[in-house]
């Protein structure tokens, strides 16, 4: 009789899984830096999004060659400016360009074998690239709110932490800078080939019928923390910008009536069966009308482009972290020079100031002590 096939461990107790997450995070961070460097006055946003997606594909193409490992874009590059909340990844004919002084949010994701790292970063657009000048006013307020909330969140992600305490923190840090977390934004547990795991954290206590189950963090959790802060009311508005980012919902079935819809769904199932995609990467002859029937019957989930009130500012910071038995490991999220953002407000809550004095990095095992103890035991 043949031996039973050994079951593959797909959580972060498996070092190979951790390594795939680490590589995905490294590529995501490098892509953020690559796209940010291209953000200058007059740059077409669609060209920047394409450049970012291509960067991910090229980087992934250099690793795990010939091993049958799926890898690539886990969330298409989106660049949303000023009061745009997110998910702006326009079609090829779109002529929207960056302007000097735009507050640009770059959002993307990478996966290696289905293990995903997502990240988002906010910059001020300068004439020839990201501006390094000091920034004051509401842009500085929103950025400080997002930054310090993210810094608190990574320190609060520990075994036994109650999820609702992170929601409370997000609100209170935002209030310290006279800002609001954007309503409806969730931080998600990540599973293999899945950006929307069972565990979810509200970034602001629901004022509508939106609700999630409270939980406590535990080892093996992988989370994407999404800090989206508004200088305004934090209430999303639909201004009828065309949605271009979707995700296949494989649990939903429906017999489509229109030929172009069936063609679009077939292409999605072949190219993007599990993770989000942009319509730019589908057949443009069929997708324009075919995607509508797929959406209307729940076969795909849209990521709409939403807005804050005109004149307000959105800052966005996102990172991915692993909760291991030895502590928290942040695998994505690039450094921010928060001293560049001169807010008139400050975080004064003592519990958060004390939290920020603690380290956000994983504790290292003291192997020397362990070896010494083992040697001592052997001598005895």
What does this structure look like?
By secondary structure, this protein is an alpha+beta fold. The protein is 32% helix and 22% strand. It contains eight helices and 17 strands. It has helices spanning 15-38, 45-60, 137-156, 163-176, 259-271, 284-296, 350-356, 367-379, and strands at residues 71-81, 84-86, 103-112, 115-124, 135-136, 180-181, 186-189, 200-202, 222-230, 237-238, 245-248, 277-278, 300-303, 306-307, 314-324, 327-330, 341-342. Strands 6, 7, 8, 9, 15 and 16 form a six-stranded antiparallel β-sheet that branches. Strands 1-3-4 form a three-stranded antiparallel β-sheet. The relative contact order is 0.17. Residues 368-380 have low confidence and may be disordered.
> Which of globular, elongated, flat, extended, rod-shaped describes the shape?
globular
Assembly type: single chain
State the helicity in percent bands: 25-40%
Query: Structural class of the helices, strands and pairings?
Result: alpha+beta
Distance between the termini: 46 Å
The main pleated sheet reads as: 6 strands, antiparallel
Topology:
Elements: H1 15-38, H2 45-60, E1 71-81, E2 84-86, E3 103-112, E4 115-124, E5 135-136, H3 137-156, H4 163-176, E6 180-181, E7 186-189, E8 200-202, E9 222-230, E10 237-238, E11 245-248, H5 259-271, E12 277-278, H6 284-296, E13 300-303, E14 306-307, E15 314-324, E16 327-330, E17 341-342, H7 350-356, H8 367-379
Parallel strand pairs: 5-17
Antiparallel strand pairs: 1-3, 2-14, 3-4, 6-9, 7-8, 7-9, 9-15, 10-14, 11-12, 11-13, 15-16
Helix pairs in contact: 1-2, 3-4, 5-6
